[in-house]
Amino acid sequence: MKKSLLIATLVLCIGIFGVTGAKAAEIPLGLLLPYTGVWAWVGAGADPGADLAIAEINEMPPLGMRIKLHKEDTETKSKPAIEGARKLYDVHKVVGIVGPTSATVRSVIPISKEAGAAEISPTAGTTKLDVIGGGIDGEHIYRTVSSDVVMTAGMVWWAMNKLPSKPKVVATFTADTEGSRSIYGGTVDALKAIGLPPVTEIEFALNQASYRAELKKLFAKNPDVVFWEANPETDATIFKQWYEMGLSGQWIGSDFANRTSAKASLPASEGAIGVNPGLLVSPKSEAWIKRLEKVSKKPGYQPFSANTYDACMIFALAIERAGTIAKDWGTTTADHRKAIINSLRKVAQPPGEKVETYADGIKALRAGKEINYEGMAGTQDWNEFGDPVTYLKAEVMTVKDPTGMARIGTVTPDMIKDIVDKVLKMRAERAK
After folding, report:
1. How far is CA 151 from each of CA 148, 207, 278, rounded to the nearest angstrom?
2. 293 in a domain, yes or no?
3. Which of 111, 140, 190, 243 has the highest local Cβ count within 10 Å?
4. What CATH number is associated with residue 403?
């Protein structure tokens, strides 16, 4: 019996620590982002956040096992996204997936459900997720970025509270993609919530040679503010032709109003504003950005990097809790996926002890405490559908800043609560 016990112990040690006992086993985690295609800039911005998180996690790895990050490219298309998800689950045996974006997230949800695993998207703001996920019907899709309802409320709030004069006439100008339609719907509802419905609503195809006809129609009623979403290549054409036509008006965009778009469209887009996911300005965030810069090799904050960082941290903390407190880590990949699902909410939201770093979270879990991780991008306190309300930043496109965008302010959840509440009430009434 002693011999059998010794053999069993040796087998367990080999499984956890490797043959030599010097190297811990690895836990595979998936990262599914668009590294190519029309949303390649999203993957480029989010990726450094994941790399930074994994580096910090592996300094104090959960359950003593390092996280191995496996990356796949969605190409901003459903078919490659599905193939990438299947490869992550079936070949790399990942315990969960960070990603993907609004363009492909609904295509991947059934794959994750079939695998019995969770996804945490750091980029998918689409309102299509507002009433699904969070574990309902076995769909364990969560987000570390706010719904577009929040971002569009921030765009409208900024227009009404921060521009030199309050707009009296507004319009929307959005592309014919799912992500853009989500922004369009949220913007229209937010404007109706404050009693200022748009006078003109135009949807257009991306990457046209000319937008002169659309711009003429857009400005026929002289809007003070245009709420828009396109892509960098299209922005270059739109703003060049808008400038050449001598049109006026203030442009306010979403997460697509970013450095990539600014560099493509400046100087014609000088003064256009983007309201999108960001960080609070604080010593904590400034120190974090310095760490990020060492990974990204780029100055400043990269789009969605903090949201991606938070998603990785939540996965790692859930792994630690699953083994340390819940003691249901198990031995198979299926066990691991289920154990993570059971611990995700326990580490991401109240009533646990608030922790602001991964290291503090690990220490608290190992002391037998429940935790509530407060992320870089926001509190990450999920509602029933797995959605948080995160911070927003406002930036202006300008040639005066070397990045093409200069930060001009912050939008916090309390500022836009009234608009968000009214929009959610409107949508609930429509759903009846």
Report:
1. 5, 24, 11
2. no
3. 190
4. 3.40.50.2300
C-alpha angle 118/119/123, rounded to 5°? 160
H or E element at residue 46: helix 40-57
Domain boundary pick from 335, 357, 373: 373
Average pLDDT, the chain: 93
Per the domain annotation, does 119 fall within a domain? yes
Q: Which domain holds residue 210?
A: 149-271+398-431
- pLDDT attached to residue 161: 97
Give dist(CA 392, CA 280) in Å, integer: 8
Residue 19 pLDDT > 80, yes or no?
no
Concatenated DSSP letters for 55-103? HHHTTS-GGG-EEEEEEEE-TTSHHHHHHHHHIIIIIS--SEEE---TT
For the cut 60, the answer to whether the pLDDT of residue 14 exceeds it is: no
Instruction: Kindly state the average pLDDT of the residues 406-423.
Output: 94
Query: Is 385 inside any structural domain?
Result: no
Which string of DSSP letters, residue by residue, matches 128-178? GGTTS-TTGGG--EEESS--HHHHHHHHHHHHHHTSSS--SSEEEEEESSH
**pLDDT given at position 300:** 87
Structurally, how many domains does the chain consist of?
2
The pLDDT of residue 428: 81
CA distances from 21 to 12, 15, 16, 58, 349 (A): 11, 9, 8, 17, 36
- Residues 229-280 have pLDDT tens digits of 999 999 999 999 999 999 999 999 998 999 999 999 999 999 999 999 989 8
pLDDT of residue 204: 98
> Is the pLDDT score of 5 beyond 50?
no
- Rounded Cα–Cα distance for residues 95 and 380 (Å): 21
**263 and 240: one domain?**
yes
Contact indicator for 323, 300 with CB cutoff of 8 Å: no
Pairing state between β 170-175 and 225-229: parallel
Count the helices and strands in the chain (H runs, E runs). Answer: 14, 14
The pLDDT assigned to 301 comes to 87
